[in-house]
Fold this sequence. Notes:
By secondary structure, the chain is mainly beta. Helix content is 12%, strand content 40%.
Amino acid sequence: MGIRRAILPLVFLLATACGAEGKTGWRVLWEGRALVLEFAPGAVVRIRGILVAVGGRRRNLLAPPFKALRPREKPGLFERTFVLPTAQGGKEFTVAVKVSEGKASLLLRPANGAQVGVEAEVEWGADPWLCRLKPSSNPDVVQVALGELRENPRCDALFDRFGDRALVASSPRVIWRKEGERVRLWAEGPPKGVLTLTAIERYYRERLGIKFYQPIDKTVKTRFPKPVSGWCSWYHFYQGVDEAKVLANARVVAEKLKPFGAEYIQVDDGWQGKGFGGGENRDWLTISPKFPHGMRFVASEIRKLGLKAGLWLIPQGQSNVEYVKANRGAFLWTEEGSSPFCKLDEKGRVKEAAWQGAFIVDPTSSEGLALIRSLMRKLAEDWGFDYFKIDGQPTINEFYRRHRRLFRDPGRDPDEAYRDTLRAVREAIGPGRFLLGCYGIPLSGIGIMDGSRTGGDVSASWGGFQPALRATMRWYFLHNVCWYCDPDCLLVRPPLTLDQARAWATLYAITGQHLMASDDLTTLPPERMAILQKVFPNLDIRPVDLYPYKGRPRVWDLKVSKGGETYDVVAVFNWGYDFQPLTVKFPELGLPGSVKFDVFEFWTWRYVGRVEGGFSFSLPPTSARVFIVKGALDRPRVLATSRHLVACYVDEVEERWDPRRLVLSGRSKVVGGFPYKVAIIAPWRPRRFVAVLAEAEGRSVKLTQEGPLVTVGWIPSKDGVVNWSVKFEEKPPLPPSRPRAPKGLRAEVRDRRVVLTWEPVEGAAFYKVFCGGEFLGSTFEPKFIDPRLGFRKRIYEVRAVNFEGQESEPSGPLPFLPPKVSELYLDEVWPSFFSQDWGELRMRRSVEGNPIRIGGREFKRGLGTHARSTIIYKLDGSFRFFSAWVGVDDEKGGAGTVVFQVFVDGRKAFESGVMRGKQPPKRVLVNIEGGRELRLVVTDAGDGISCDHADWADAKLLAGEPEVRGGPSSR
Length: 971
């Protein structure tokens, strides 16, 4: 629908994007002096104030001393004039509401050049959410909420999730303020500005394509008020799982994770049939010998530990031939009487089968649905399982679409038929057991499933984490709205670095998604177990930005509301392989830019400072940092605790400040036997507070103070709520002082990049790193990796910065000359950044892990990727050429169409044109002399990414003139 801007002093447009029926629309009413616009029952905007400048001050047209003349009405137009009596006879303003084709335009005349304000009270369904429906000016920032979000200048809309109806506001300044079920709206702009309110019906169903949209109804007590958490056997044991391994891990969970909120132990594929295999091993009636005491025993032993048992299966699939013969009417058959999902050998045994099963239930057969109910009742009521992960669901749904003609009732809609099988599952297990869909994203299960996987399988590597990251970016808008999203299990074991494990855990904690650990907990190092303990349990977090996220946003701002306190927990990610500079701007978080905030980093337990407007820093490669941001006070207060990444929310019960005794005290819910710390900010100006004594559980405990950061720590003697206190003394403020200059600056080359280290500086909040006077970045730790590849001479310096923002003198300059190389293959170094829409970036292999082969020609070196992909390298300008051979990898048998592009410092230097499978490789030779950034891009040629396996074969940087051989060159 087009919206035409009227040339009038104030234009207030209310437009509606109607649903398919087209029956909704705006009605204009006058209730006394209030202007009422009603979209539907329970969807009403009451404008109670239109503020205009008269005589140097603002006055409300809709209130005395303005006199309201009788409304005038004709088809499509409603007008009312308001008169302010003056000595000159009166000043008139006319409000006109023009209604046409579902659009209501509020016009004010005449213009007087001043700002105009609009006050409205909005009723928009039961419990409307403040939200955004499109990216803000900085798409690198997304927001989530824990507790009720009552006000946020960043929000541009309201969403009624029960009515699937949104109301969007656009204006130079819009503020929503939630007060119970009603919301107040304040809008302000210049006379010629436009405020647009757009009512969108069926937002999730039609705008986001969620056909079976249905919101979670948390009023049903037997369902799940938040996502569940626990442990899954799959990503360490796979089909090698057995009874002993499951129970050993269950005992560790009971000891080390249950006190922190873990609830479930889920046994994955490998318990059934012969214990190994694919579609030929979908016999849910036979228990593998690896579980000698049976699954009822396993569930019982898990319950004895105070946990609940979960089980993996595909309820619509089956591979037991004899069982299928006895229940032939329950399954799908071709006209020839065979299963369309398998091949049998001469003895009638399954030889080949679809992964979901050799035989698939007919969803329109009463026998088939009865079989599903019988199976699930056995697993739930007889065996005692309370959680079910049902796999292969999107493919089962697709099977039903493809084979509808084989239904007993081919007139049944295949999506509804698929949902009938889910309803049978739900009827059997009841509302109190958790039902998780898998694999991919079975959107047809919304409204029946409690949660669902939203992406592919993960593995214990940074590349193996990417499917979970992509799933979060694409589908997080469904989380805690329709169901609980499961981006797949959380892994923290080596070879993941400690930073990578923390980043993975941070993403899950800050988003509140489904949380199942899947390492072998019996061998997990203590520092890795500590990561899990700081993110369990997952919390009732929901998205604020209700749309898929493009790219990989790096700043995730959690708005926390608990009791009367609100604060922000800001998770910042570096998805790349070198130090990346980043600035967090408070206005982009909806915080005032002119107010001071205390900022504390959780993972490094570091006070960043009392800052205004925002803060800047550089993140180490493949890492995350979590900043707690709280408004600054003039007395001591708690910033964070060590219990959970979402500071204080899980454990802090109460906090009190006694200004007479100078005592900060609190009550915390702690876990006995596990270390507990409280981070307190003690202001230093204009009053300086010094901590002198800390007590907890009736005894003195460890107390440290570094500048304004006070840390109280102890090991609680038992679970429960304990009292603690810190006694302060007030001292004269110290004169400002700069930190000392860093000492011991050293440089060495590791993995083709220069790594700097130096001695820590007492009182340093962070460090700034320079090269030749150019600022490279900042870091919290005394270590920095120069991302640039090359061999030019460099002169490094480092400065320490304290919590007041004062910089030290620079360290002594350190000249360093990296060793010169004639060529550098790109498969020897990780790029500064990469992203791709499928799989992992591979070194010296195709994206599927095979030898690189293009048009029948094999290459020993190179990069295997997948469209759409971007690979970035930072350079120091010393290399002269980039050389490679490009093409679609042969592993897809001739399928796939891609376009290769090379950019140097943002300028396109090469484009391959469309390349197809089986075509010979094309030579790339690009002059990069003096370049600072090399960007390698693969697009999908406009036809989607299916089979787009792309290779940058023999990709390398050259210091001298290239030898051109073997084919044409491109420059």
